[in-house]
Design brief:
heterotetramer, A: alpha/beta, 2 domains, seven-stranded mixed β-sheet, five-stranded mixed β-sheet, 14 strands, about 20% strand, B: about 350 residues, alpha/beta, Rossmann fold, six-stranded parallel β-sheet, 14 helices, 8 strands, about 45% helix, about 10% strand, binds thiamine diphosphate, binds magnesium ion
Chain lengths: ~325, ~350, ~350, ~325
């Protein structure tokens, strides 16, 4: 059975289903109760599951995550909403030194089952701190896993898979796609939580993206197709760990790779993908991998954000560069 | 509104209240000046809301209901003091001399700041809740080292009071006896979260546990806010250490233009607070005690109207920045990735700028 | 040591003190049991210090001087309560039943934890100051949801009290009326920093500003600590909400074996506190009031000696883990980078382990 | 004039000289006054410069950095000591959202001149949180600069250059090298703060490292030389920005690159270097670049840390792999 809904609604339904299935699942965050969250992802859930399971918290991110640790020790599975990407940093210490390391520290006695939901990336014309891409920080951190959905169907399934998973998961939601609609299959998940998928097949260039950039990548592929370049678009879905195997397979076919991301390129997911793929597919490479990234500046005022974020034009320029490399 | 703890010098009806600790030192002209400030700020705020509704601003954070808190505090400052705002301190910015159009650059999304913080001695808008309180304490530690008779003042909300940074700022201010005043506008809401979620007891009590004075003032009473703030600043400047002021007030409007408060609070509550309007209260005093004429009030309204029009014009004239400006001021010194980015942008034809 | 604020049931000389709010509910056997705990903990602590000096431990954090605070608190706990320690709560771990050799695994650098925290209901050692206070609050929120009559208890030091996390834990505990007791051992030093740098007023006052009770207890008086803690826990378990207990005590030894306290504090201060020794105090009571014989004390000393020897043996027997164990428990579920690392280690011949 | 001293002493002397030169320089941190810091880097400075310039702070890292921001606004230059790498995370929000972005947010009116000193990397047999490598997080963050010293001479000069610099600098000190001695030239700095240097010349492989790993890399190069492989060792010194030019020059000569770092490899400095070099030197590459990193696990108990940290053996294994790649 499939049905059409927005990504926001798909997340809402996914959360609802996870809460129905497991009474230990609870949601915590700022304004997630009566208001339903600033993006309405938790709309109606407090009404149906009560204030004990959909908890409007005091305004302290470190405590949202820190108490989730305690709840995990007690056997609960907290889904923490961080209101915007730029507000996750007060919780950074709890995430990096506690959430990521408590399973190890307890020699396996604790499971840090929790999901930290972060609406991330830009594209909504907001003010500062509302458009950031913190995923490289979490990907670098051993003990964490990081995933991102790019379609309503993935949103619906990946949030449930993440909640069921026993490791802590940073769940990155491309906020500028919240209101876009797509088909959701209510019966079975499209794939495993940590699997990348090919969103469009192609033969000339492997174009890798996640989150909001997937759609931009697909648009670029369409344009390129008109110009005669066949682009294979891969959605990493999981950011850490990376499903490098699938990417390598594609690259062995195309020989060229471009990675798209909104974060600056230094020590980024793109750097990781390019390094790994270079190592694995050295002899298949017709050109060096290129990253199309946000620039190395604080996220700019959003009147000019579309020139900061990787655009179709910038992606195509990179495609041209890998295609024309030999010459 | 009988609250033993609350410092109040004017009733909601604009009648004088005896207070054993504080008395108003302001004359009629000064009070009229405050009235004018409040009217102008309210008018500019309303204009900004319309600008946002018309798609000219990305967002707006209304200050309605909090004018007395901000003007009372803002006017208590001395020129050399330095203020550290959140995103809603339009009244403070006004008192510091920040041009209104500068205040709107953030909300038009053409700058992450908007004014020269050193020139106006009013720091950049701070969106990450509570961060600025530590900046204020650090600045105050600088004042101490310079041996200056100045004070720093940090603004934050009831919601932000739950952030670790704010409480670390309390620890440090107390530890170093820093010349800083913490001004918490308890407007009773942090988006949809009532202030009772942050604290079940009045927030000003928090200061006592850190070893410095806390005062709750009627935040809709500009006379009281002024006196309480002035005393705290005076004390800070001469080595008296920090004070926490909780200005008990109310956010009449939405959290921001993106918010829908009908989802989480009842109209009746808003109505109650509309009857405690800070502007009407001081106007009543001016009418009764100082016999201010309608013509004078009208004059202020007209002035505010003109400023609102000018603000609208200024905002409409704020054009989209050249994208290449995103590389400006990312670093103070040259940086290879900045050069690289600039070059790429020019090569791509996105900017006509020059290297 | 006359301090109006301090709950004390025994003078430093071991004489009973009348207290209007608290009285001791312990009988002679129980008090002798506490004495035994304290002697054993002190002996094990000294053994650990020697083990460190002999190069057998990477580090040791002595607990000397704080035995009464920890045993009084530890013995007030009910079996189903759950405790959240720092790195110095050896006395609490002891009361929770953690085997002494487990406590030393962290310090021998063979584990980042050392015991099964679920089994002993005593969480992992926490080194990042203050983090565990939030874990305790979260755990307590879980207790509430389970409708259980249990409590969580968080330990931290005077130094850690300045961390944002601790104060956020206060906010949350108050907001949710969580069944948690915050137990602050004010041993007056945070490495070289005197507790007066963290707060100029007694730390227990801090709780009042957050809207819950704070109590200062003589941390060298095991009877007082027990009663104060017991009451706080009892209250928490039945919906009475959080309490902050400040156990006023003293760190007799170095911060850790890496520290050199002669650089920052004077011997005279240490001497004063040696005269307030928590073990001697309760021993005096046992001698005078309960007529405990020397032979009984000697029995405890001998028992402690045996345990110290056993601890030494156990520690020496803790061998270097196979390096491949570093991959265990990094994740609960399979992870490609873990597989990759294991494989590399085996290929390099670093570990004889198997995939 | 040169003299021999430990890195700890060189830092101490560098700080002293910076404080003598500029009365606006002040030091802040936990236990840095009377105790002289847990590593004695600030030994004696409070005695000579007073409590107002060498400030023993309450125990709150967020406040150490947050107040440094306020001091910077007032024209001071704070040098913040973070006691150990693992304790920088409570300050992460202030570093990433305030320190890194305030110059931009103020449209240039504020200079965030400050140095955040972090004793980093492992090798001292400590307990958890005392051996971490947080530099990838800061390198990823636009608005920051990250440097690391590997010799007493660099320590002496780089700390002074950092304090004089107008951008905020994360200054990473390889704590396991604090007690190693070296020559310090008291008259002139060895090079610019952001310049990489060749520590040993070679022709077969470019081996890139920073901090504590530089010495390990040099040892590996020595061993390799005996076996007939000529390794060029580059000390990046600056971690962000990277002096990629110098590295590329070396790689064009050798055709092979290995990067050594203690952090896990995902989205790391090594990933960045390999990606950048692959792009710039594609046709010179005889083998894909390899990273020798810490494993993707929480820093292990230190009885086994030497099997976590890149060792001479692991580096040589990587060298063998790039040397033997063709076959
Ligand atoms: C660290 C952080 N978390 C969350 C937010 C999102 N947010 C913006 S304003 C706000 C409510 C703040 O309430 P309060 O401090 O009372 O200030 P007010 O808006 O009422 O003036 C929240 C949660 C933020 N800006 N920063
Ligand atoms: C966040 C953090 N910062 C710094 C340290 C380094 N450190 C370890 S113990 C300590 C002093 C703690 O003092 P206190 O809280 O009073 O506990 P005590 O050691 O006296 O038991 C410091 C600064 C740390 N562990 N965590
Ligand atoms: Mg508010
Ligand atoms: Mg202490």
């Amino acid at each position: 059975m499939t049905t059409t809904m927005t990504m926001a609604k798909a997340l809402n339904e996914g959360l609802r289903r996870a809460m129905e299935k497991d009474p230990k699942v609870l949601l915590m965050g700022e304004d997630i109760g009566r208001l339903g969250g600033v993006f309405r992802i938790t709309d109606g859930l407090q009404k149906d599951f009560g204030e004990d399971r959909v908890v409007d918290t005091p305004l302290s991110e470190s405590a949202i995550v820190g108490t989730a640790v305690g709840l995990a020790i007690r056997g609960y599975r907290a889904v923490c909403e961080i209101q915007f990407d730029g507000f996750v940093y007060p919780a950074f210490d709890q995430i990096v030194s506690q959430v990521a390391k408590m399973h190890k520290r307890s020699d396996g006695a604790y499971k840090m089952a929790m999901v930290i939901r972060i609406p991330f990336q830009g594209g909504i014309g907001a003010i500062e701190h509302h458009s950031e891409s913190p995923e490289p920080y979490f990907a670098q951190t051993a003990g964490l896993r990081v995933v991102s959905c790019s379609t309503p169907n993935d949103a619906y399934w990946m949030i449930q898979q993440s909640i069921e998973h026993d490791d802590p998961i940073i769940f990155c939601e491309p906020k500028c796609r919240y209101w876009e609609k797509g088909e959701v299959d209510l019966e079975s998940p499209p794939s495993g939580l940590f699997d990348a998928v090919v969103r469009r097949e192609g033969t000339d260039v492997t174009l890798i993206a996640y989150g909001a950039s997937v759609k931009t990548a697909l648009r670029a592929a369409e344009t390129a197709a008109v110009e005669g370049t066949s682009i294979e678009v891969i959605d990493t879905r999981s950011i850490a760990p990376l499903d490098i195997g699938l990417m390598a397979k594609s690259l062995e076919k195309t020989g060229r790779v471009v990675v798209v991301q909104e974060s600056p390129h230094t020590a980024s997911i793109g750097s990781e993908i390019v390094s790994e793929l270079t190592q694995r597919c050295f002899y298949s490479l017709k050109a060096p991998g290129i990253r199309v990234s946000g620039y190395h500046v604080p996220y700019p005022p959003t009147r000019i954000e579309e020139d900061y974020r990787p655009s179709v034009d910038r992606i195509l320029d990179a495609v041209d560069r890998v295609m024309g490399f030999e010459s | 509104m009988i609250d033993e703890e609350l410092v109040q010098l004017l009733t909601p009806e604009g009648e004088r209240v005896e207070n054993s600790e504080y008395e108003s030192t302001l004359n009629g002209d000064e009070i009229f000046g405050f009235y004018r400030d409040m009217v102008i700020i309210r008018r500019l705020c309303n204009e900004s809301t319309s600008l946002q509704r018309q798609g000219q601003l990305a967002l707006w954070a209304p200050v309605q209901g909090q004018e007395a808190a901000q003007i009372g505090a803002g006017r208590a400052l001395a020129p050399m003091d330095f203020t550290f705002p959140t995103y809603r301190e339009h009244g403070i910015a006004w008192c510091r001399g920040v041009p209104p159009e500068n205040m709107l650059r953030l909300f038009r999304a053409v700058s992450n700041g908007g004014w020269d913080p050193q020139k106006y001695r009013h720091s950049v808008p701070t969106v990450v809740l509570g961060s600025q309180t530590l900046h204020a304490v650090g600045y105050a530690m600088g004042i101490q080292r310079d041996g200056a008779e100045e004070a720093a003042m940090a603004f934050f909300g009831d919601g932000a009071s739950s952030q670790g940074d704010v409480m670390e700022a309390f620890v440090w201010a107390a530890s170093f006896n820093a010349p800083v005043v913490f001004f918490c506008q308890n407007n009773q809401w942090g988006i949809s979260t009532p202030s009772t979620v942050q604290s079940k007891i009045p927030l000003y009590h928090r200061a006592h546990g850190f070893g410095f004075p806390g005062v709750r003032v009627d935040g809709n009473d500009v006379l009281a806010v002024y006196e309480v703030t002035k005393r705290a600043l005076d004390s800070a400047r001469v080595g008296g250490g920090p004070t926490l002021i909780e200005a008990y007030t109310y956010r009449i409007g939405a959290h921001t233009t993106s918010d829908d408060p009908t989802r989480y609070r009842i109209d009746a509550e808003v109505e109650v607070w509309k009857h405690r309007d800070p502007v009407e209260r001081v106007k009543a005093l001016l009418v009764h005690e100082y016999k201010v004429k309608n013509a004078d009030f009208d004059g202020v309204a007209a002035e505010a109207e003109t400023m609102a029009l000018k603000l609208r014009e200024d905002v409409l004239a704020m054009s989209r920045p050249d994208p290449i400006t995103m590389f400006d001021n990312a670093y103070a010194a040259p940086h290879p990735l900045i050069e690289e980015g600039r070059r790429e942008m020019i090569d791509l034809g996105i900017s006509g700028g020059e290297l």
